[in-house]
């Protein structure tokens, strides 16, 4: 057996995982037969079975005949154990943690990790979200943003290309056609509850190697939120001054909301 499952966080070796999966397929079965079926050396199979039995993941139906714990029960048990360890670790951290007198600006690397972090921030938002979205990121995050608005979070969205009416407070960024070309990528910025910011640039050629900043640093958050807030003013100014068009009634309401949203 040379298969790697790459499941390092569940505290089971590749051999143990392979043994359990094989046992699911062929139970009830003895160790010798399971060794042949799974490709795990006989010298190791019994040690693995003993370990799994000790943890309650395998049982002996009769002398030397093994059956697996049902998968749903195994997953529940692994989740319980993982959460217990996390809770213990959290308690240890809380006991030694000194009050922070400053917050670092961290780097999140990789597109999927950035999207996961953004979704986490959206899901935990309580009062407001400011966000700037190109269509690619909108496709990933729009569902979480809609859920946030539904639970009472005020979502203020600047779409970087034309987008259907989705939120009560949204605008299309002026001259959006030029922005990505001039910047050399897609800007992405999200601020939640005046407490947390994630933002940076997804460069077109190296999307999977992107490095995006995340922080709870007060001044970093204020600067990010102000930048997004002023995108709304950019929209209002562009329409009234450059296009020489009056704001419609809905836009006047949006203007008052953003104007008073210090």
What is the gyration radius calculated from CA atoms? 27 Å
Total strands: 10
| CATH architectural grouping of the largest domain | 2-Layer Sandwich
| CATH class annotation of the largest domain | Alpha Beta
> Could you spell the SSE succession in H and E letters?
HEHHEEHEHEHEEHEEEHH
Fraction of residues in helices?
40-55%
Helical stretch count? Answer: 9
Question: What shape does the CA trace take?
Answer: elongated
CATH superfamily of the largest domain: Endonuclease Chain A
Tell me the strand order in the biggest sheet.
Answer: 4-10-9-8-5-6-7
Round the mean pLDDT to the nearest integer and report it: 86
Main sheet properties: 7 strands, mixed
How far is the N terminus from the C terminus?
62 Å
Strand content: 15-25%
How many domains, as an integer? 2
**Annotated CATH topology of the largest domain:** Endonuclease, Chain A
Pairing-aware structural class of the strands and helices? alpha+beta
Low-pLDDT segments, ≥5 res: none
